[in-house]
């Protein structure tokens, strides 16, 4: 196995971290309330005592961002792992 060159890894991260952030922003740009609401159970809001539109929208956006970031970051990290190997 070849020795890991940290400068190369650092350069890879520098060159590709922008893609991670751009995908995060793009995901929010294409987010629509109607699409998100179709994926959610409305009774869950009542069970969680979510009473205002603000609470519903914040909860939906937070959940979307969280799950989406995990996927995007996982893909980015996989690219880094392949680069290192």
Main features:
single chain; 85 residues; mainly alpha
Shape: elongated
Biggest pleated-sheet summary: none
End-to-end separation:
9 Å
Integer average pLDDT = 88
Query: Gyration radius, to the nearest Å?
Result: 18 Å
So how many helices? 4
Please tell me the total number of domains.
1
Number of strands: 0
Order of helices and strands: HHHH
Please report which band the strand proportion falls in: under 5%, 5-15%, 15-25%, 25-35%, 35-45% or over 45%: under 5%
Which structural class best describes the helix and strand composition? mainly alpha
Helical proportion?
over 70%
Which blocks of ≥5 consecutive residues have pLDDT under 50? none
List the helices and strands and how they pair.
Elements: H1 6-29, H2 33-38, H3 42-47, H4 53-84
Helix pairs in contact: 1-4
Can you put this structure into words, describing what you see?
The protein has one domain. Helices cover 80% and strands 0% of the residues. It has four helices and no strands. The protein has helices at 6-29, 33-38, 42-47, 53-84. Helix 1 runs antiparallel to helix 4 (53-84).
TL;DR of this structure?
With 85 residues, the chain is mainly α. It has helices at residues 6-29, 33-38, 42-47, 53-84. Helix 1 runs antiparallel to helix 4 (53-84).
């Amino acid at each position: 196995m070849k020795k890991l060159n940290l400068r190369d890894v650092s350069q890879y991260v520098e060159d590709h971290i922008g893609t991670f952030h751009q995908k995060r922003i793009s995901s929010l740009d294409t987010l629509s309330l109607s699409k998100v609401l179709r994926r959610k159970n409305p009774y869950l809001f009542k069970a969680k005592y979510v009473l205002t539109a603000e609470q519903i929208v914040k909860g939906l956006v937070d959940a979307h961002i969280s799950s989406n970031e995990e996927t995007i970051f996982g893909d980015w990290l996989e690219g880094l792992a392949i680069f290192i190997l």
